[in-house]
Amino acid sequence: LDLGCGNGKYLGKSTGLFEIGSDYSENLLHIVRDRGFQGMRADMLATGLRDNVASGVICIAALHHLFTPARRKSAVEEILRVLEPGGKFLIYVWAKDQRKEELSSYLKQNKKNLKPNNITDENKQEAVGEFGLPVH
Predict the structure, then answer these.
(1) Residue 90, Cβ neighbours under 10 Å: how many?
(2) Tens of pLDDT, residues 12-70
(3) Helices vs strands, H then E, count in the chain
(4) I need a surface site. Which of 15, 69, 88, 102 has the fewest CB within 10 A?
C-alpha cells in the first residue's frame, strides 16, 4: 500500500506484488490509473481498508501535509491498523517546518502557477493553503 501515493511514482518498482496506491486527490489517481496501476481515493486518517490487510505500507512525502501533530499521529495509527503483524512500513517526511525563504523549488513553482480564479464550486469546500495545496 502506498498511502498518499500522489502520481504513483513508487508503484511498479517491485515484481510479484499486489500494489495499490491511495491518495485523496482524484486528479492524481487518474495519473496512477493511466500508468496502469490500481488506485483508490482515501483519507490517510481512515482508509476504509480492513485491519491487517497490507504486508507493507509506504508513506513518502505525504504525512507532513496533515496540519496538526494529532492528525499526523492518527495517520500513523491508521498505517499500523492496516499493516499485518510482522509487516513493514516506511514513512518519509519532507521539510515539515519549512520557512518561506527556504521553500523547495516545487513549492516556489506551484506558488507562481497558482491563480485565484481556479476555484470552482466543486473545490470551494476544501480549504486551500498558500501554495494551492489542500489544508487538512
Answers:
(1) 12
(2) 887 788 899 999 999 999 999 999 999 999 999 999 999 999 999 999 999 888 888 99
(3) 3, 5
(4) 15
